[in-house]
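Incident log, support desk, overnight shift.

02:14 A customer reports that sequence design results differ from what the structure should imply. Their input is reproduced verbatim below. On-call engineer (initials T.W.) acknowledged and began investigating.
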């Protein structure tokens, strides 16, 4: 299973890379805008620091314009994956871009049917937003399981990125459900190793060690 970092913050990206846990990065317009007004420079900087795929989203909404924007984004770096919102215009753009070997990540996916369309169009990645689905009272992870089932039925090779991750349980459930990738905010990545009994255990061992050496 791959871990991507859901961040456009260079410091977070560097720290996460240093942990050795990060296989790629996803950004979105909100994350980039929160860091810098010079978002293209920032996106290039992120691509240069990360070996794996880096998702950067188009802002255009019509297929022809999305395609032009996507081609420009793809020129930023060899590891750019162009994020395209899940609309009919987006699907149309993905079909053209995949024929040009420009990898796409279809984002803002909230239903198995949307994920089916994205895979048919040739998306390299598809991002169901589990946290936002949970917010509506549905189970985000049930949607992920249904997408996996559809992709297995037909041998689609679009990779599923579980996105809109809000807590460590989302990461665990994504792994149990069999998602290919989970994209994790930095503050949640830091929590994944936590268990109170691990800390208690370390303290107990330290105490025993120190008292034996007195
Ligand atoms: O990966 C998508 C993510 O950035 C959106 O997360 O928490 O805004 O739903 P959230």
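02:41 Re-run completed on a clean worker. Output:
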């Amino acid at each position: 299973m791959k871990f991507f970092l859901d961040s456009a913050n260079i410091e977070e990206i560097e720290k996460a890379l240093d942990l050795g846990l990060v296989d790629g990065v996803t950004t979105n317009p909100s994350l980039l805008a929160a860091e810098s007004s010079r978002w293209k420079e920032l996106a290039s900087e992120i691509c240069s620091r990360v070996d794996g795929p880096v998702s950067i989203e188009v802002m255009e909404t019509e297929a022809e314009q999305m395609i032009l924007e996507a081609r420009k984004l793809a020129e930023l770096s060899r590891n750019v994956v162009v994020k395209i919102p899940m609309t009919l215009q987006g699907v149309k753009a993905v079909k053209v871009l995949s024929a040009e070997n420009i990898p796409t990540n279809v984002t803002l996916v909230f239903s198995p049917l949307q994920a089916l369309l994205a895979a048919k169009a040739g998306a390299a990645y598809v991002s169901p937003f589990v946290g936002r689905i949970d917010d509506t009272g549905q189970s985000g992870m049930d949607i992920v399981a249904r997408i996996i089932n559809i992709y297995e039925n037909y041998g689609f090779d679009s990779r599923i990125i579980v996105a809109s991750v809000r807590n460590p349980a989302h990461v665990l459930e994504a792994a149990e459900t069999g998602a290919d990738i989970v994209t994790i905010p930095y503050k949640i990545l830091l929590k994944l190793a936590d268990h109170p009994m691990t800390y208690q255990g370390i303290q107990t061992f330290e105490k025993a060690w120190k008292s034996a050496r007195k």
